[in-house]
Amino acid sequence: MSLAFHKFHEGPIIRLRWTTQTDLQSRVAVGVGARQHLVECLAQLKVGKRVLLLYPSALAATWGEEIEKLLDQSDYQVSVLQMPDGEIGKSLECLSEIWDTLQLHCLDRTDTIVALGGGALTDLAGFAASTYLRGINLVLLPTTLLAQVDAAIGGKTGINLISGKNLAGTIYTPQAVIVDPAYLSTLPTRDFTSGLAEVIKYALLENTIAGASEYKIGPRRFFDILSESLPNINEEDSVEHIHPLLPGIITSCIKMKLATVAADLREANLRRCLNLGHTLGHALEKVSDYKLAHGEAVAIGLVFATRLAVKKNLIGEEALNRLTTLLEDVSLPLEIPGEYDKQAISQSMLHDKKRAGEKIKLILPKGEIGSVDYSYEIPTSEIAHCL
Ligand code: GLY
Predict the structure, then answer these.
(1) pLDDT < 70 regions, the chain
(2) What is the pLDDT of residues 140-161, one digit of tens each?
(3) C-alpha to C-alpha distance for 303 and 119, rounded to whole angstroms
(4) How many other β-carbons are positioned within 10 Å of the β-carbon of residue 376?
(5) How far apart are the first and last CA of the chain?
(6) Domain 190-386 in CATH: superfamily?
(7) Does domain 2-187 have CATH number 3.40.50.1970?
(8) For strand 50-56 and strand 355-356, is the pairing parallel, antiparallel, or unpaired?
(9) Which residue's CA is the nearest one to ligand 1's atom 4?
(10) In 25, 128, 173, 251, which residue has its Cα 20 to 30 A from 136's Cα atom?
(11) Residue nearest to ligand 1 atom 2, measured at CA
(12) Is 22 helix (H, G, I), strand (E, B) or coil?
């Protein structure tokens, strides 16, 4: 399958191609206004005429209606299913409702699920698309910064079980991902800031990704670009209009993620580095009962990993100072809030899937900003002490 990128859109939209070892291909288009080209994209993919459009109810009156109208004006037969917002939608009940709706409207393997929403919805839609008739087409329109730079890219899908998050899932490559930074204009400030933690994470991984994949470092380091630009991309910029640097920043993150996934789809090696800051981050989210947003918890995890790396003489103190300055500049937290029990957090970290016997594998910055050791082993007995 190939897509004529030059025909996709005449304009400032950046097209990226993602080919994995398994020869699955996905197309990612990034640009303000890219969402308006959904119908064109479906036509280029040569998919069947039936579409199931999914979006969270919170987006119904805005972006949901816009995409629905766009599809209604085309010659696709569109069914719409509104899903609950956030993690609560990643349930067996919602999954089953999607499967039943696909059946009810007779979608076959040539047809498509189009999912508009944040990472929870794109995960759920991906799981449904990968399992219905053993796989139907999937086009994602991520609407949060977190989903645009991470969740909707790379093929991870999943739902939550009572015993934990993302415990059932698949890896399934969407046919296309349309990333429109205009969606960020209505994103609540806290969600936008939270997404910046994942953006900053990529800056801490750039050299490592470049060393083990086809990603090429540009004339300036991503961390330097972010240090200079992020303090100017403030709440007003994100809510009132799209800062001109934002599409480029999002594109850089996506390029790093695509290169990582192309090198290691199944997270046997390089892809593990994307978990930088997440061992503590996930534990914090859980212990805070998800009161801390994902990105806030990851920001604290990035500081923890860098502080630990300084302690272990893997990296100099200056790297830690530069990171904390950048996180502070964008109003992300650095420290575990006092109300959360460190004992409970370290216990939760020890249940992390990266534990191997008496040791836990952490991703720690090493050498200089942009490089990490992604299999640094630390005895579990040290974890509580490190916190
Ligand atoms: N969110 C990390 C990954 O996709 O591997």
Answers:
(1) 1-13, 17-25, 234-240, 352-356
(2) 999 999 999 999 999 999 999 9
(3) 24
(4) 19
(5) 49
(6) Dehydroquinate synthase-like - alpha domain (1.20.1090.10)
(7) yes
(8) unpaired
(9) 154
(10) 251
(11) 274
(12) coil
Q: Where exactly are the structural domains of the chain?
A: 2-187, 190-386
Rounded distance between C-alpha atoms, residue 338 and residue 319, angstroms: 25
Asked if 297 and 317 touch (Cβ cutoff 8 Å), the reply is no
Alpha helices in 288-333 (DSSP H): 294-311, 317-329
Give this prediction's pTM: 0.93
Q: Name the pairing type of β-strands 159-161 and 164-168.
A: antiparallel
Take residue 19 and report the two structure tokens written for it.
């080919």
Give pLDDT tens digits for 240-293. 577 888 989 999 999 999 999 999 999 999 999 999 999 999 999 999 988 999
Atom from ligand 1 closest to the CA of residue 156: 4
Q: Return phi, psi of residue 217, to 5°.
A: -75, 135
**Strand ranges for the chain from DSSP E:** 14-19, 25-30, 50-56, 77-83, 112-117, 137-142, 159-161, 164-168, 176-179, 355-356, 359-365, 372-379
- Which pLDDT score is estimated for 385? 83
Residue 136's CB is within 10 A of a number of other CB atoms, namely 23
- Name the token pair of 328: 């502070």
Is residue 176 within 8 Å of residue 27, measured between CB atoms?
yes
Ligand 1 pocket test: pick from 146, 150, 352 the residue with the most ligand atoms within 8 Å of its Cβ.
150
Told to judge if 271 belongs to the known catalytic residues of this protein, a careful annotator would answer: yes
CA distance 241 to 253: 21
Complete edge-to-edge strand list for the sheet that includes strand 355-356: 355-356, 359-365, 372-379
> Any idea what DSSP says for residue 35?
G
H or E element, residue 283: helix 278-287
* Beta bridge partners of residue 115, listed in sequence order: 54, 140
d(Cα 97, Cα 74) in Å, to the nearest integer? 25
